[in-house]
Write a structure and sequence with these properties.
binds NADP nicotinamide-adenine-dinucleotide phosphate; alpha/beta; seven-stranded parallel sheet; Rossmann fold; 8 helices
Length: 238
């Protein structure tokens, strides 16, 4: 049986992926801050799920929690970093920006570092992170969110380059959703909003194929191409 950890599995995409992996014969370690939601998820498949409550903004406790969960699982083949936060912040409230950076940059990096080092010793493994189409350009309404997602995209590219140079069987997958119907999808003018079920299905298919970059849903790739091509002068006025 394969072993996976999903960081940020209490709700939304992470929870959807946890259920799909459990149905695909994975033993799954599920994490988040909301213990009650982890318990509720575990009760749906008690033999498949192992829970650990921790806050990824407390980077001193991340490694010990990941190690304890890996020991409980009896190994690790796959880690999915689905934890993330972000809010609309037109008034530039620094507390919102700080929380976003501590979660999406510092916490994310700590998890990714631990996982890469673990997989390097093991000479195999798969790191999957849920970044965002938003990471392709800046945002006037959520500057830290888009900037932290850009960090994740760039960081994952660096890890992929490192894995390739090392000639190990470490795979790095960058999953870039557009809008998915979760608590995270905020703001007006949303379109092509996917259900969690559809998004999770497409992500699991991408994981099976060890895809490097995946837009979710698939047609968001078009938005990605357009976003990257909008000239700066035009983008600044949008
Ligand atoms: N929904 C969208 O439209 C969309 C679009 C693009 C990208 N994404 C990305 O998809 C990922 C999953 O988000 P979602 O849409 O599924 O939203 P969600 O339902 O709010 O899920 C976020 C998950 O992250 C965990 N989390 C947040 N802060 C944490 C912290 N400090 N420590 C530990 N866990 C933390 C939450 O668990 P606890 O609250 O229990 O800690 C929860 O399980 C995020 O990285 C998000 O940026 C979402």
């Amino acid at each position: 049986m394969k072993k996976a950890i999903i960081v940020g599995a209490t709700s939304g995409i992470g929870k959807g992926l946890a259920l799909k992996l459990a149905n695909n014969d994975y033993d799954v370690g599920i994490t988040g801050r909301r213990t009650e939601l982890l318990r509720e998820l575990k009760s749906q498949k008690p033999n498949s799920f192992h829970t650990k409550t921790f806050d990824i903004t407390d980077s001193n406790s991340i490694v010990e929690n990941l190690e304890a969960l890996t020991e409980e699982l009896g190994g690790l083949d796959l880690i999915i970093i689905s934890s993330g936060t972000g809010d609309l912040n037109e008034k530039l409230d620094f507390e919102i920006e700080k929380q976003t950076i501590e979660t999406n940059v510092t916490g994310f990096t700590c998890i990714a570092n631990w996982a890469f080092n673990y997989f390097e010793k093991q000479e195999s493994g798969h790191i999957v992170a849920i970044s965002s189409v938003g990471g392709l350009r800046g945002s006037k309404i959520a500057p830290a969110y888009n900037a932290t997602k850009a960090f994740q995209i760039n960081y994952l590219e660096g890890l992929r380059q490192k894995a390739t140079k090392l000639k190990t069987k470490i795979f790095i997958s960058d999953i870039r959703p557009g809008f998915v119907d979760t608590a995270m999808a905020k703001g007006e003018g949303q379109f092509w909003v996917s259900t969690v079920d559809k998004a999770s299905h497409q992500i699991v298919e991408a994981i099976k194929k060890k895809k490097k970059i995946t837009y979710v849903t698939k047609r968001w790739k078009l938005i990605g191409v357009i976003l990257k091509r909008i000239p700066r002068q035009m983008y600044d006025r949008m």
